[in-house]
């Protein structure tokens, strides 16, 4: 997060002449009159009068000397950042586009459709392959670590000096985590965390910088291997969703801008419309590889992301998900020397819940609902604690070296706490012939017994979840589970948000499985015949669902993911009830974890619907006005000056036909984007040059696709003084049919149109079709329902 020293506070709308009624701000604060000139999103505005609020205290002379590297970065989540742009999900149907479509034969369209299926297959295959590599690397590294520590502990249990084992464990953990944190903090900060909030934003239509780069993928994969092998309270499932999305963004473009390598394939798909659809397929393939849940992956993309959806897209995404889980399954079967045995559909395998052991009675449903409510409360507590911790990190832990040190500290503390819990635990269980523990620790237990606490801590989180689900009754005593739940809850809360690649899915499942199993044990103890129906593994599953639902607040997709991961549909209804209850209870206190982190990054995220009480607001009140417009034939110097203006960074410009010489407003005849104008300037598409036949060829759509997605900045394009006097005809390149709304349209109606069609700019016109304003994502995202009714967020260049 960049340093936010000032925030710009917008208030009621004023027109160009400064007239109009004085209306109070939505939050009841004092009004400040201003004029805003906006012709697109991003960047700053032309401001007639503006008030700034200084977020920093008055600095002393000592602080002035370190202004370049402040100790504290102020933060205010009531801000909306202007640095984020929208994706152009709506095609620009200009003359070039229409000519290309007309030239394309029926066979050409069929080939494109086949290409889409091929790309989705490749996305699934590569995502599954990456998941396989992550799984094998983590298992081997963690295996070596646990074997070394186990040998060391056994050695020093007999002769004394277990502190050496603790130091060895802490050092190994810190070393792994240091590598993971260094590559994230110093090479690609965009790879931090699970990446799910960023992918949610991308699918929502926000262009998050560097989120789908190849470098991000490499750092993400290496980072998550180090994090999980380093023993942090994290999972490798969340980052798989981000990895799948990056794979999709790369494969679908047929080139790598990072490696500067163009394979000259899939050129037709080099635009936001197609790319965003493929990214949704990649995210679904990531879910599928992580949980072995192809249907859950499709529903995840549908629930969390893409606003525009159709049946063919659903089929392609399902295909990518299926290929992903099959690929992972196939390669893991070869790795495990069981080629063809496709029994590992996902990275997390909950194991089989056999029908007789998972049967439930009608009277248990209220108990499941109570567990859902408990999960909602615990999830809300987790989210609130993590929110304040993240605020602290933004303010004080903003230097890369500090971020690495914090990650190493967490790794060492995790090892120390784990060791202490195992050391002081006297919960010894017999080591039977059917015992599935990979690293059973005897410690101070008698021969033929192992330390039960070590099963939970001295293992990868996935294995710990599986043992909580499937170990027979009596494998854990209640005190062990209580202490484990308490410590792991706070460790997971502290860990999420570190500068490492890590997910929150598995820690949430592990916390929930622990207290769920505890709940089952207590039920069996206090009810007659409880030991018959209160199977601990069944309640561990419900607790895991409740805790995960309480933290991330996903309902539909998570229900299906849990059902698919358990391999048994019997629990469909209880899991759905548990997740629904957890969401309702949790939402009463605070938002879901991903939504909190999206808000903390000040991203202009558009929710499913406009705020409930916003019907009285109209397009005229939310739009940016007056608008910078271009004429159909515009002077090159004027275009260059507008694009070069550093105080404005507009991305869309209405093209107008002047109505009268005295009237400033012109009739709308099209819309042209900054990226299109830059390509036109780069290729010198001027009227005079076309007449003198100095241009070699006519500009084609391919020229725009070749420049996508990293269009050159206007500063890199040289325009001579003579060329500034030339004219540019925008008719052929502008979108002649942009979406427009009358200025009296209500905010919910504008919101619905904007979100459903994935728009970037929505032109507001008067009764005579003259441009009066422009609505962009930030104009809509600023309004949200707060504790005191409808509130307006402030905009800042962060």
From TrEMBL:
SMART domains linked to this entry: CBS
Localization per record: Membrane
Primary localisation category: membrane
Keywords: CBS domain, Chloride, Ion transport, Membrane, Repeat, Transmembrane, Transmembrane helix, Transport
Membrane-spanning intervals of the chain: 117-138, 166-187, 217-235, 278-301, 313-335, 365-389, 401-424, 479-498, 504-527, 539-563, 569-590
Region described as Disordered: spans on this chain: 1-27
Topology class, membrane: Multi-pass membrane protein
Listed GO MF terms: chloride channel activity; chloride:proton antiporter activity
GO cellular component terms listed in the entry, alphabetical order: lysosomal membrane
Span of domain CBS: 734-792
SUPFAM superfamilies the UniProt entry points to: CBS-domain pair, Clc chloride channel
Family according to the record: Belongs to the chloride channel (TC 2.A.49) family.
Name of the protein in its database record: Chloride channel protein
Species this chain originates from: Oncorhynchus mykiss
Gene (UniProt): LOC110538858
